[in-house]
Design goal:
Layout (H helix, E strand, L loop, with lengths): L3 E4 L3 H6 L4 H9 L2 E6 L1 H5 L25 H6 L1 H17 L4 H12 L2 E6 L5 H5 L4 E3 L2 E8 L5 E2 L19 E5 L8 H13 L2 E5 L9 H9 L3 E6 L11 E4 L2 H13 L2
Parallel strand pairs: 1-10, 2-3, 2-8, 3-4, 8-9, 9-10
Antiparallel strand pairs: 5-6, 5-7
Helix pairs in contact: 2-10, 6-10, 8-9
Length: 261
């Protein structure tokens, strides 16, 4: 099992538990830290997970039927409308205390890399600068033909917009099933994993590849691995420190304990 597995059932209990002094020492000395975040972080901002978003009109569809290149080729407007529905939720969501704690952590650590599986852009809104969006950003679009990017979705009620450069159909700038992660983002994430002294896995189930392999690889490279998640995951037993609770409650406590802010 991990060296220190601490359960945080609620905020009151979290305030009563002292963080492991060994972890505080590691972080005070660390100059290279990487953090991987998943859907659990965004859930605390009121955003549904990818699969939980299948509600109402969209309950009749499987996510896999709306998030593949083939689905877009068959019915681009259906896929466009599905992502417009999700984009509206992301557009009005606000960062939570966990997002802001990670942005604060970046200010204290010389080399801090935030790797996220989330597509809502909330880490940047919270102030994080060095963010690697492995699965893209739902607030942006790109041409399905030439790859030209844009941050203007246009009028979602109308037809799928066309690229101003080549007239190809625009699509959400997210990674679909059957697609590879963006090479530059993945390479940067792997590099951060190789060089970090401390690796955080936050709000992620640890089963989505290839991101799930990063924490295990960081451990093999000699990094101290810290897990923060609502429930135990396949990573828990191998983590050096595991905290089970909300990242929006645990991370602010951690930042305060280590850096006093």
């Amino acid at each position: 099992m991990c060296a220190d597995c601490i359960h945080y059932p609620n905020w009151t209990d979290a305030m009563m538990i002292t963080l492991p002094p060994e972890l505080i020492t590691y972080l005070k000395k660390a100059t290279r830290v990487a953090a991987l975040t998943g859907a659990g972080v965004s859930q605390e901002s009121g955003l549904r997970t990818f699969r939980d978003a299948q509600a109402g009109l969209w309950a009749q569809y499987r996510p896999e039927d709306l998030a593949t290149p083939g689905a877009f080729a068959r019915d681009p407007k259906l896929v466009w409308d599905w992502y417009a529905h999700r984009r509206e939720s992301a557009k009005f969501a606000k960062p939570n205390a966990g997002h802001y704690a990670l942005a604060a952590m970046e200010k204290y650590i010389p080399e801090f890399t935030l790797i996220t599986q989330n597509v809502d852009g909330l880490h940047r809104v919270a102030g994080s600068m060095n963010v690697l969006e492995l699965h893209g950003n739902i607030l942006n679009v790109r041409c399905s033909e030439c790859g030209t990017f844009d941050d203007n979705w246009g009028d979602d009620s109308l037809a799928v917009p066309r690229c101003k450069k080549c007239n190809g159909l625009m699509r959400p700038d997210v990674v679909w099933f059957e697609e590879s992660l963006p090479r530059a983002q993945l390479d940067a994430a792997v590099n951060a994993m190789h060089t970090c002294q401390v690796f955080f896995s936050i709000g992620t189930s640890g089963v989505v590849h290839p991101a799930s392999a990063l924490a295990h690889a960081a451990k093999a490279e000699g990094a101290v691995v810290v897990e923060i998640n609502a429930e135990p995951t396949p990573l828990t037993a191998k983590a050096d420190f595991a905290f089970h609770g909300k990242s929006g409650e645990i991370l602010p406590d951690l930042v305060k304990a280590v850096w006093g802010g």
